[in-house]
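Recap from last week: sequence in, structure out.
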Amino acid sequence: MNPHALTAAHRSLPLGSKVKVTNRRNGRTVVVRINDRGPFIRGRIVDLSRAAARALGFVQAGHTPVCLANLQ
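Predicted structure tokens:
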């Protein structure tokens, strides 16, 4: 996964699919491309790149509740 691109890892969504991710705490959204598998931590549904986390405003926190909407 490229930390400088708007990418993410998901266990089951097809690689290459686009997903709209919304930060439930501040309402910011970003569209990312699924290009990796994971996360492998119980309770987490998506692993975002650093650039995506920065765009959503939680890079310092490390994790936050999000909503996903599959665009493809």
